[in-house]
Design brief:
heterotrimer; A mainly alpha; B alpha+beta; C alpha/beta; A: mainly alpha; two-stranded antiparallel sheet; 9 helices; 3% strand; C: alpha/beta; 5-stranded parallel beta sheet; two-stranded antiparallel ribbon; 14 helices; binds protoporphyrin IX containing FE; binds NI-FE oxidized active center; binds iron/sulfur cluster; binds FE3-S4 cluster
């Protein structure tokens, strides 16, 4: 750090663990999910079904992976949400739409991203990012609900069916659930691409240790962030 | 004095049909007859913008009674548009399925939809089971000659599994069932009919008992006749098809194959059941009942069939390149592709016109009118060829009554959900009777080189004429003749199943197991825009589907269906369709209980879901 | 006899069925309905004490294939259902009588058995043009349907037409056809979807209802659990091939001959509830998948509009039919990545200027 910066401790270990777990889970879920939707690469053509189990990369394994990481993703989400009550910094995913500051800061950031202004004020987490993260959480919750709803229907009346089965008629039948689960999978990946870019961009331009913050929990600011009261 | 009598709903048909007749009470003549299709679903509009490869499933749902036929017409239509030639096996399998449909649909119509116009359970109770058993033996003797017209190409099974039981015990069992039903006071489906009508006294009680026993017996057997659909298409009603051939791949090496030896054995068994049910029950019963009715002077109801009948031809012996370019008509075995006029004047005097590809594609030959139908065209006083066809609903209401509570329909205005198809601006009757007249005329006048199917038709007609001691032009264009032609065609259909199963065996034996041509499966291989026509001889008559495909989507789709022809309302020139003409050619004894009218209309096997679609 | 009405057992007895045969029959029925043997005495009791139920079967917009399917039933045979289990008092497809006589008989039955008869509905009512796309007896079918439902003890919705709307309700639904639960709102309705339903599912439901005097246990969609409890995919004999990734890639290819999974041919088994996988058609003879064609989902709500039957490609609604989700998704992600790079370059340049 060539300039004088102050270190801020933002991300608790639980948060960081949750983050990396879902980064991994989403990657696996997306790849296996797309494969489930269209099994383009076939492993065992030529074997009989009876013996196919002995060979790798079957639909069975891909689905097993998908469902396993579905459970893992669910666990990571639960972990992330369960820490919210205990620490102020863990509430950063809640955009404060009701405050004037939210809108002012959002415009400030937006103007910068659109190259209208050359820089934006420093933030612990800027409002646009917060909104995007909230959106992402909603999409992940949607995937979990629809995913476990589909999963649960192999045992109708069972635990998962009872818990999430209600979504199926709401979306107009199980075929529609597949469709929306599939579409939202792409929306999540869209988020990931933009997110990774924004994170790296922030790191390079603001030199606030953005990337490493998800490893060690710390960010570095030259000036006091505008939203410092949120942590 | 003439009274207007309404029959609505007409029961024992498919769908919703309303009849209105005016009967002159002194002459018992029907002076005016109105028939109206009273349902419409808009399937031609629903298939628009869809993938042509899946349209068969939509059109198949036009009807679950002649199930499969609209799927067949549709895949033929799309294949015609895309120039797809299907493999031999697919052609044979489709023909087995068509033969199967004839045998099932005709048989069920006779026993379960039509029989109660001729026979009554209440008369059956009066029969003596011993005399009935004797009579059963006697009619088998008298009419059994017809059985020999069935040719067993497959080589035969050990002995018939299904044959009429001519024992008093058998008939007593059924009679007791009916008696109990009557005594319990809960007649169920037999309730409330005009059983006191004098016509039910025309036959001896023993004939009634045979027919009613077989009504119940065949209710249990009919399901076995359609088993080929279940094997080749996975279910019945509504078996599955694909554009380009059939889905049921054949392999003699895989126990999981859709078609292997075991599956074919199941089909073969059903093919023999078709033969037995038709030969030993249906034909015998039909001839016994029909002969008595004809002898008692029941030679009316012919109507339009005396004047003009039409057919398209079916059962391509081998795959054809296309329908549009004429190859289909070169390959067919059932040469009912023609129009025959004035058959009632004798087969020598009848006029025969062949129907070929050009008659289907020429915009001036086959057209539909909506002058009296609840649809509108930009110009209502012209007819439209199906490629330019328009389906635009326009409901107007009745002559008397309110828009939603009819008293009488308005035959001077619009009065039916059925359009009016016409051949060169002329109405025509279609169906088994039409096909039989066409083939008979074509063969007797030497227009065609008869196939085995054509020959069978001619032999059947000649045999029945001999039995009745009447020339074909007298007994055929009648209500009884229409019912008889259907029974004869049932035998033809059952025989076709047998013939094509043999061909399927032979082809598999020769090493060909292909059932689908997938070269043009992908829309990227299709022309940007194209048209097709798909035809078939449906159980109820000539069926045509026409399509226009643009950018791999259906742009226009029109179906002109057998019951659309037969049940059509009047046209621009006031010419009536076959139902109306037949009713006006029927004598009604008691105006308030017009049993004769039901009998004549039922002889067409009306299908209203088909007619309006 | 109960109230002068014949019980099921009495009816059987009258048809010459012995007590032993009757008990055997009851055991078979119990098995058919998937009930444990412990239930046999209950079934026997039910048959001995329950009077025969009158049934009124009406037809709206439909293709009559549900009726056709019904008469294909083998266990029980349709003739047994019609002559000994129920009293089919009205059915325009099978009734002998026609016209006014038939309509009057229906009215009489509705009065005589008010609150006791079962109303079976095949097809559905169109609402467009005051219901005049389907007219019975000169009145809209809708009117007759509502009237018949009034005095019914319960309503059976035959097939996908009555249950969901089916083909005539497929886009653009020119007649505004609606499933019957949209117009009959105050009666228990049991849905037997399928286009058509499996024969034994139809007769099995009738038997249960007659024997126990109540509707079978239903799932959240109103379908009998015993017949619609599982996805076809979860009961399909081709499932091992699905699991192993062995798919038919094209009709009539090697996989097709070997009977591999039809998933990639658009099979809707994974989202369709029906007894096709276990009961199958014709008492186990076959079902669409066994004939080499994917399930088209014929018992599922709105199956006509769930996209091409031959592909599992998921299209994005609202964007039109060419909007395959994977293609759109890949393009969107690609564009986002490219946009990110461009944005990054510009940002870098501009922030470089800032430092000057
Ligand atoms: C599948 C991939 C990823 C997903 C779904 C994801 C998701 C998220 C979410 C939801 C947050 C908000 C965390 C919270 O407040 O609980 C977040 C924050 C963050 N992520 Fe990721 N992330 C992914 C990949 C990455 C990668 C690859 C990096 C680094 C190279 C990264 C760096 C960060 C950083 C630095 C933050 C904190 C940003 C801030 O404080 O404003 N993420 N991520
Ligand atoms: C980021 C999260 C997730 C993504 C990106 C994702 C993606 C996908 C995709 C693309 C499909 C294919 C859908 C189709 O075309 O039919 C799929 C299927 C599925 N997913 Fe997910 N999914 C996610 C989370 C979950 C979760 C949490 C579960 C819960 C167990 C789950 C369960 C399923 C199930 C049951 C299927 C259907 C599998 C089948 O039909 O065989 N998914 N997923
Ligand atoms: N008319 C008619 Fe059909 C037949 N046969 C169709 O093509 O019955 Ni439903
Ligand atoms: S549900 Fe299907 S099969 Fe039954 S009547 Fe409707 S369209 Fe026909
Ligand atoms: S054929 Fe269809 S239902 Fe059977 S396993 Fe494959 S996808 Fe599932
Ligand atoms: S198409 Fe229908 S018949 Fe069964 S396998 Fe699928 S639900
Ligand atoms: Mg039409």
């Amino acid at each position: 750090m060539d300039k004088e910066t102050k270190k801020y401790y933002l991300f608790s270990p639980s948060l960081r663990i949750a983050h990396w777990v879902w980064a991994l889970a989403i990657s696996v879920l997306f790849i296996t999910g797309i494969y489930i939707g269209n099994p383009f690469f076939i492993g065992n053509v030529g074997y009989s079904a009876t013996f196919g189990d002995l060979h790798a990369l079957t639909m069975n394994y891909i689905r097993l992976l998908h469902f396993s990481f579905g459970y893992i993703l669910l666990a990571a989400l639960i972990l992330r949400f369960s820490i919210i009550p205990f620490r102020k910094a863990d509430r950063l995913i809640i955009p404060k739409f009701w405050t004037k500051a939210y809108w002012e800061n959002a415009f400030d950031t937006l103007k910068n991203y659109l190259f209208i202004t050359k820089s934006h004020r420093p933030y612990v987490r800027n409002p646009l990012a917060r909104t995007a993260y909230l959106g992402l959480f909603l999409l992940l919750i949607f995937e979990v609900i629809t995913g476990f709803a589909m999963y649960g229907r192999s045992n109708p009346g069972g635990f998962w069916d009872k818990l999430f089965g209600w979504i199926i008629p709401m979306l107009g039948g199980e075929y529609q659930v597949h469709r929306w689960h599939h579409i939202v999978a792409w929306l999540i990946v869209l988020f990931v691409v933009i997110h990774v870019y924004m994170v790296i961009r922030e790191d390079i331009l603001e030199k606030d240790g953005e990337v490493s913050s998800m490893v060690n929990g710390n960010k570095f600011f030259e000036h006091t962030p505008a939203d410092i009261t949120d942590i | 004095m003439s009274t207007r009598v309404v029959i609505d709903p007409v029961s024992r048909i498919e769908g919703h049909l309303r009849l209105e007749i005016e009967v002159d009470e002194s002459s018992h003549k029907v002076t005016n007859a109105v028939s109206a299709g009273t349902m419409w679903r808009g399937i031609e509009l629903i298939v628009r913008n869809r993938d042509p490869r899946e349209v068969w499933a939509f059109t198949q749902r036009i009807c679950g009674v002649c199930t499969t036929i609209h799927a067949l017409a549709s895949v033929r239509n799309i294949e015609d548009a895309l120039d797809i030639e299907i493999p031999k096996n697919a052609n044979y399998i489709r023909n087995i399925m068509l033969g199967t449909l004839y045998s099932h649909d005709h048989l069920v119509h006779f026993y379960h939809l039509h029989a109660l116009d001729w026979v009554s359970p209440l008369e059956a109770i009066k029969a003596d089971p011993v005399a009935t058993a004797a009579l059963q033996n006697q009619i088998l003797q008298t009419y059994g000659g017809i059985i020999s017209l069935y040719t067993d190409f497959l080589g035969g099974n050990a002995y018939p599994r299904k044959f009429p039981k001519a024992t008093p015990g058998y008939f007593k069992t059924f009679q007791d069932k009916i008696k109990n039903l009557v005594q319990s006071g809960q007649l169920g489906i037999f309730a409330a009919n005009w059983w006191d009508h004098p016509d039910y006294k025309m036959l001896p009680p023993e004939v009634h008992l045979i027919a009613i026993a077989h009504y119940l017996n065949m209710l249990d057997v009919q399901r076995e006749l359609v088993i080929p659909h279940v094997v080749f298409g996975g279910k019945n009603p509504h078996p599955h098809y694909i554009v380009g051939g059939m889905n049921c791949s054949i392999s003699m090496n895989d126990m999981n194959a859709p078609i292997n030896m075991e599956r074919l054995a199941v089909v073969e068994d059903a093919v023999y059941t078709q033969a037995e049910a038709t030969n030993l029950f249906y034909l015998i019963d039909l001839l016994a009942i029909g002969q008595i009715y004809i002898q008692k002077g029941w030679t009316y109801g012919g109507g339009l069939s005396k004047e003009r009948v039409l057919g398209y031809g079916d059962f391509p012996d081998e795959p054809y390149k296309s329908i549009k370019n004429g190859d289909y008509h070169k390959k067919i075995l059932y040469h009912s592709n023609g129009v025959v006029e004035n058959f009632a004047q004798g087969v020598e005097k009848a006029k025969y016109y062949p129907i070929t590809n050009e008659d289907l594609t020429n915009p001036d030959i086959i057209q539909e009118w909506v002058t009296h139908s609840w649809y509108q065209y930009p110009n209502n006083s012209e007819g439209l060829h199906p490629w330019n066809g328009i389906t635009d609903p326009y409901y107007t209401g009745p002559k008397e009554g309110t828009k939603t509570h009819w008293k009488y329909l308005n035959e001077d205005g619009k009065y039916s959900w059925i359009k009016s198809p016409r051949w060169k601006n002329l109405p025509a009757e279609v169906g088994p009777l039409a096909r039989y007249m066409i083939v008979y005329t074509a063969v007797k006048q030497g227009h065609i080189k008869p196939s085995w199917m054509d020959e069978m038709v001619v032999n059947q007609i000649d045999l029945v004429s001999k039995l009745l001691n009447l020339p074909p032009h007298v007994w055929m264009p009648t209500t009884v003749g229409r019912t008889a032609a259907r029974a004869l065609e049932c035998q033809l259909g059952a025989n076709a199943s047998n013939y094509f199963l043999k061909k399927l065996y032979d082809n598999i034996k020769a090493g060909d197991t292909s059932v689908a041509n997938m070269e043009k499966w992908e829309p990227s291989t299709w022309p940007k825009s194209t048209k097709g026509v798909g035809i078939s001889e449906a159980p109820r008559g000539a069926l045509g589907h026409w399509c226009i495909i643009k950018d791999a989507k259906i742009e226009n789709y029109q179906a002109v269906v057998p019951t659309t022809w037969n049940g059509s309302p009047r046209d621009e020139k006031g010419q009536q369709g076959a139902f109306e003409r037949s009713m006006q050619d029927t004598i009604v004894l008691i105006a308030k209980e017009p049993l004769e009218i039901l009998r004549s209309v039922h002889s067409f096997d009306p299908c209203l879901a088909c007619s309006t679609h | 006899m109960i109230d002068g009405k014949e019980t099921f057992w009495e009816a059987l007895k009258r048809h010459g069925v012995s007590r032993r045969e009757f008990l055997k029959f009851s055991a078979v029925i119990t098995g058919l309905m998937g009930l444990p043997p412990a239930m046999i005495p209950k079934i026997v009791e039910a048959m001995e004490t329950k009077p025969r139920v009158p049934v009124i079967w009406v037809h709206g917009l439909e293709c009559t294939c549900c009726s056709e399917s019904f008469i294909r039933s083998a266990t029980p045979l349709a003739s047994d259902v019609l002559l000994t289990m129920i009293s089919l008092e009205y059915d325009d497809t099978l009734s002998a009588a026609a016209g006014e006589a038939l309509e009057k008989h229906k009215d009489d039955i509705m009065k005589k058995y008010h609150g006791e008869y079962i109303l079976a509905v095949e097809g559905n009512p169109p609402l467009g043009d005051d219901g005049m796309y389907c007219v019975v007896g000169g009145k809209p079918f809708l009117e007759g349907l509502k009237k018949a439902a009034e005095g019914a003890k319960a309503v059976i919705a035959w097939g996908s037409c009555a249950s969901w709307g089916c083909v005539q309700a497929a886009k653009p639904n020119p007649t505004t056809a609606v499933p019957i639960h949209k117009v009959i709102t105050d009666k228990p309705i049991v849905k037997i979807p399928g286009c058509p339903p499996i024969p034994e599912v139809m007769t099995g439901t009738i038997m249960y209802t007659v024997l126990f005097g109540k509707l079978p246990p239903l799932d959240s969609q109103g379908r009998p659990k015993m017949f619609y409890g599982n996805r076809i995919h979860d009961t399909c004999y081709r499932r091992p091939f699905f699991n192993e990734g062995m798919y038919v890639e094209q009709f009539d290819d090697e996989g097709a001959k070997k009977g591999w999974c039809l998933y990639k041919m658009g099979c809707r088994g994974p989202t369709t509830y029906n007894s096709c996988g276990n009961l199958r058609w014709y008492n186990g003879l076959s079902y669409p998948i066994q004939s080499g064609h994917g399930c088209i989902g014929c018992s599922a709500d709105g199956f006509w509009d769930n996209g091409n039957f031959y592909s599992r490609e998921q299209n994005i609604p609202f964007i039109g039919t060419e909007s395959n989700a994977d293609k759109v998704g890949a393009v969107a992600v690609g564009a986002a990545a490219a946009g990110a790079v461009a944005h990054g370059v510009i940002s870098k340049i501009r922030s470089g200027k800032k430092e000057d």
